[in-house]
């Protein structure tokens, strides 16, 4: 069985993982044969998935840089995944070296990978945590210490909410996390949606079936449903828009059609 030095002991490498599939879409090498097989099956239905990933990463860079430029130096990155370069902490530190970051993921392989990338930097913490258990996440020492200073925090939920099914109460989880944030904090979200996918819903459902097969069902939501995650926040201009339209560096019209398959937004807590 395939085994890499960066994989924690006890991990079943024959089962595909969402974070490692994402790494494959992003052109990374931290994935196993099972991940590549599942990713290729999904690409058979949605060949532009790598373009969607690129658009989400570009939004992350713009949003994190914007937040750091306005004095936010604390970031909680939930569902951090395992992209090898261009991580949240790299972008934040490039904008302001004083930034502190907590990376969280429920996948121990992703956590092990990010720990290796972060090294022994005291300003970067990495831990296993699950968005579906917000109280446990908030009580973790890494997050509790970051919130202790009571200065504004940026809560990043980048591409993770589609993996929380309605029955698991994603709105309640986001609300509980938001209640713990200090005033003037930010919530930063990207979320896949049917609206902008440039293929039929039937074809999109084929890709969703791949995720169901690996027991990581993916829920696409409408713009109206995604907007509910921002209830209680003041939306930062330009509001909740397709990902390339959020404060673009280059004209959004130049983007690949698949780049518009998710919505992005930033909200500010009063």
From TrEMBL:
<dbReference type="Pfam" id="PF04672">
    <property type="entry name" value="Methyltransf_19"/>
</dbReference>
<dbReference type="InterPro" id="IPR006764">
    <property type="entry name" value="SAM_dep_MeTrfase_SAV2177_type"/>
</dbReference>
<dbReference type="InterPro" id="IPR029063">
    <property type="entry name" value="SAM-dependent_MTases_sf"/>
</dbReference>
<feature type="region of interest" description="Disordered">
    <location>
        <begin position="246"/>
        <end position="270"/>
    </location>
</feature>
<protein>
    <recommendedName>
        <fullName>SAM-dependent methyltransferase</fullName>
    </recommendedName>
</protein>
């Amino acid at each position: 069985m395939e085994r890499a030095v960066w994989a924690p002991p006890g991990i079943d490498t024959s089962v595909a993982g969402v974070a490692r599939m994402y790494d494959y879409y992003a052109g990374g090498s931290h994935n196993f044969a099972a991940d590549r097989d599942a990713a290729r099956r999904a690409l058979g239905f949605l060949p532009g998935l790598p373009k969607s990933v690129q658009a989400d990463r570009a939004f992350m860079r713009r949003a994190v840089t914007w937040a750091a430029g306005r004095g936010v130096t604390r970031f909680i990155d939930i569902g951090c995944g395992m992209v090898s370069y261009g991580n949240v902490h790299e972008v934040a530190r490039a904008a302001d070296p004083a930034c502190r970051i907590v990376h969280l993921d429920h996948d121990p392989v992703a956590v092990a990978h990010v720990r290796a990338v972060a090294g022994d930097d005291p300003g970067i913490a990495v831990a296993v945590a699950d968005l579906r258990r917000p109280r446990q996440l908030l009580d973790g020492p890494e997050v509790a210490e970051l919130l202790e200073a009571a200065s504004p925090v940026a809560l990043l939920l980048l591409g993770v909410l589609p993996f929380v099914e309605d029955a698991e109460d994603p709105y309640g989880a986001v609300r509980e996390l938001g209640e713990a944030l200090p005033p003037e904090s930010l919530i930063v979200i990207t979320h896949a949606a049917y609206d902008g996918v440039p293929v039929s819903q039937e074809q999109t459902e084929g890709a969703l079936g791949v995720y169901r097969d690996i027991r990581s069902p993916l829920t696409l939501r409408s713009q109206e449903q995604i907007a509910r995650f921002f209830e209680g926040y003041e939306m930062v201009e330009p509001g909740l828009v397709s990902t390339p339209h959020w404060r673009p560096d280059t004209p959004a019209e130049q983007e690949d059609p698949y780049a518009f398959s998710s919505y992005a937004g930033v909200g500010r807590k009063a």
